[in-house]
Amino acid sequence: MQNKIIYLDNNATTMVAPEVVEAMMPFFMERYGNPSSMHDFGGNVAHDVEYARHQVAMMLGADHDYEIVFTSGATESDNMAILGTLQYYRDKKHIVTTKVEHPAVLNLCRQLEREGYLVTYVPVDREGNLDLDFLFDSVTNDTAIVSVMYANNETGVIFPVEKIGAFCKKRGIPFHIDAVQAIGKIPVNVNAIQCDLLAISGHKFHAPKGIGVLYVRRGTRMRPLLYGGHQEKARRPGTHNVPGIIGIGKASELVMQHLANAEEVNRVKRLRDKLEHGLLTQCSNAHLNGAKNNRVDNTTNVGFEFIEGEAILLYLNEKGIAASSGSACSSGSLEPSHVLRAMGVPFTSAHGSIRFSLSRYTTEDEIDYTLKIMPEVVERLLEISPYWDAKTKKGKPITELAR
Amino acid sequence: MWEYTEKVKELYKNPKNVGEIPDADVVVEVGSIVCGDALTLYLKLDGDKIVDAKFKTFGCGSAIASSSALTEMIKGKTIEEAAKITNKDIVEFLGGLPDQKMHCSVMGQEALEKAIKKIKGHAVEDEHEDEGAIVCQCFGVSENLIRRVINENNLTTVEEVTNYTKAGGACGSCIPKIEDIIKEELAKGATQKVISAKKPMSNLKRMQLVEETIQNVIRPVLMRDGGDIELIDIDGKKVYVALRGHCAHCVISDVTMKNLVQEKLREFVENDIEVIEVK
User: Fold this and answer.
1) B123 Cβ under 8 Å from any chain A Cβ
2) What is the DSSP code string of B40-107?
3) Residues 203-222 of A with CB under 8 A from B
4) CB pair distance less than 8 Å for A334 and B170
5) Distance CA B160, CA B162 (A)
6) Tens digit of pLDDT for each residue in A328-341?
7) Which residues of chain B are within 8 Å of residue A333 when distances are taken between CB atoms?
């Protein structure tokens, strides 16, 4: 078992599903035509591209297939949604987003601030829940777009996007959702949430890397980021990434199958809960980060006090377990993750926070093995930690925290 | 994923000298849990010799490895010998560290320095005065530490200073101040380094210093006037040079030699250097 990687980092990326690989294969060496060509060899491929578009539209509950625009990934989709909208509403200079967005939105907003835009970053509470009233109050007549994530990548906490969608619709403000971490984990329906724009990324739900989608509701006003050919109705020019598109189409179909299978959905949740409960009870000084009852089913984020996240990951790596950390050291940023800081997670455990994210391929054996290893890792690092008293089995008082 | 050397991997997996020394002669703490890494160092002395060293570290893989390296390096050394260890030596011991992880080695050096100060009887209150003003509020990094790290590691950019000390790595409000410090240190850099390395000197060291001084101190002055200098040979304390450009034909070249080259070499290298001009 130790020879095989135990992959509990599915919020970072996922394995490409075998069915997806199989669907893509013919489009490399047999059916490699350009869907924009006049000849049948290319033209027939266009039918497959359109079918994939339909598969994605079905998954998102979109009214029209043409509302699906293929991109290179969610970073491009997020940039296209926000910049494209600002390009259209040139006189509006205010953006509303949250403090805990993915860098694809957050760093774009920081850049827009430098260019003269005013950005409101809506805070979250200690459990990572969005301050909805703050968001409603921050919208003005100058607001060009509201951009909010569906589920947080680090904690899995779900935001009340339906309420925001209804509010934005009433106010007539374009609403963009970064739904990257929701797809495949909870049903996503663009009409239920009344969003105008929605970004997803293939490789987070068992399609390959390098393919994403921006859902653009019919009638949404925006301008393209790129200029070139007529592809995607000139909203996103460039020769189609045919294998990627076929892949994300097939992966969308598999997501629908998965979510329709209540037993499977519950299995992932049960494994996550087993892992979480085990970690919180078997490891010393472990705390859950994020709202327990308002999360996607595959994610758990646990803070281990008095030890550091990168060291935990390195020790897990030695045992063949892949997870991720919100610690400063693992990212090279010197500060713990912006999400944990926005939540006000104390420094005693923010640096030692580990995210485990499961997939529908995760097995019970893998969870059991992780539960065997993790308490050993925590004990080993506590032995090294200057903040841990081995005799009393308690943390030492930390005066620096007063700062 | 960081590119750690095999030595770093070995030492974070199986760190040496982890633990406390119950009857330690010196215990010092550096870093803090807020900053994301902290080290407590325990030393046991016999006279002026460090007979045992142990540590406890909160931090990433390279922080654990740096702490282990430090304790291995100082065990068995006298205080004077240990005092010469810099963060560079720790990095060397580890076979290198990723740029962004250099601050882990600096933390080791900081702990050692603090311990030696304590051994030599400096009162704890004095320490803060010694450290100078705090430049980076986020990580509590002092001006003196920044200046020392700049000099010892030949740093020239804010990014490097952040990698080595963390200063400027969070809110960034101290970056202009760090820029000022770098400028000041670069201006006096060459001078200081040469002075600090005076006294009994091997031939090799003398040659290096002569070359450095000619390159960094003398040539810039000559070149300002359209001249140049070439180092021909070094024989013991005799330095043979040739003047080029305008200087070569200058009637007062002899004066130039005595006044500038010899004076500077005597100032920066050794006070009995003799300069001989080769035509």
Assistant:
1) no
2) EEEEEEETTEEEEEEEEEES-HHHHHHHHHHHHHHTT-BHHHHHT--HHHHHHHTT---GGGHHHHHH
3) none
4) yes
5) 5
6) 665 566 678 899 99
7) 169
Looking at every residue in chain A, the average pLDDT score rounds to 94
Chosen for mutation from B60, B164, B175 (greatest number of chain A CBs closer than 10 Å) is B60
Output the CA–CA distances (angstroms, integers) from residue A365 to A11, A368, B172, in the order listed: 20, 5, 46
pLDDT, tens digit, for every residue of B137-160?
888 888 888 998 898 888 989 999
Which pTM does this prediction carry?
A: 0.80
Q: What is the tens place of the pLDDT at every residue in B91-134?
A: 999 999 998 888 889 999 999 999 999 988 764 444 444 567 88
The residue type at A176: H
| Helix/strand/coil for B222 | helix
Chain B CA closest to residue A341: B34
Instruction: Kindly list the residues from chain A whose CB atom is less than 8 angstroms away from the CB atom of residue B13.
Output: 315, 318
Interface check for B108 against chain A (CB to CB < 8 A): the answer is no
DSSP code for B14:
S
Q: Which two tokens stand for residue B179?
A: 């820029």
Is position B138 annotated as part of the catalytic site? no
User: What is the rounded CA–CA span in Å between residue A353 and residue A335?
Assistant: 12
Query: What gap in Å lies between CA B35 and CA B220, rounded to an integer?
Result: 43
Helix (H/G/I), strand (E/B), else coil: A200: strand
Please report where in the chains the tokens 């570290």 appear, as a residue: B57
Angle at A60 between CA A58 and CA A65, to 5 degrees: 55
Interface confidence, given as ipTM, is 0.84
Q: Which of A367, A376, A368, A69 is nearest to A234 (CA)?
A: A69
Q: Count CB-CB contacts under 10 A for residue A191.
A: 12
Bridge-based pairing state of the strands A324-325 and B238-245: unpaired
Helix (H, G, I), strand (E, B) or coil at B9: helix
Of B34, B58, B162, the CB nearest to A308: B58
Q: Does A384 touch chain B (CB under 8 A)?
A: yes
Q: Confidence band (pLDDT; 50, 70, 90) for A114?
A: very high
Residue A383 near chain B (CB below 8 Å): yes
Return the amino acid letter for A74.
A
- Is-contact B150 B182, C-beta < 8 A? yes
Residues of A in contact with B102 (CB under 8 A): none
Pairwise CB contact (< 8 Å): A308 & B170? no
How many residue pairs from chains A and B have C-beta atoms closer than 8 A? Answer: 82
Task: Report how far apart, in Å, the C-alpha atoms of B193 and of each of A104, A194, B209, B213 are.
Answer: 45, 67, 10, 10
Alpha carbon distances (Å) from A189 to A174, A200, A203, A297: 17, 13, 20, 18
Other CB atoms within 10 Å distance of the CB of residue A91: 6
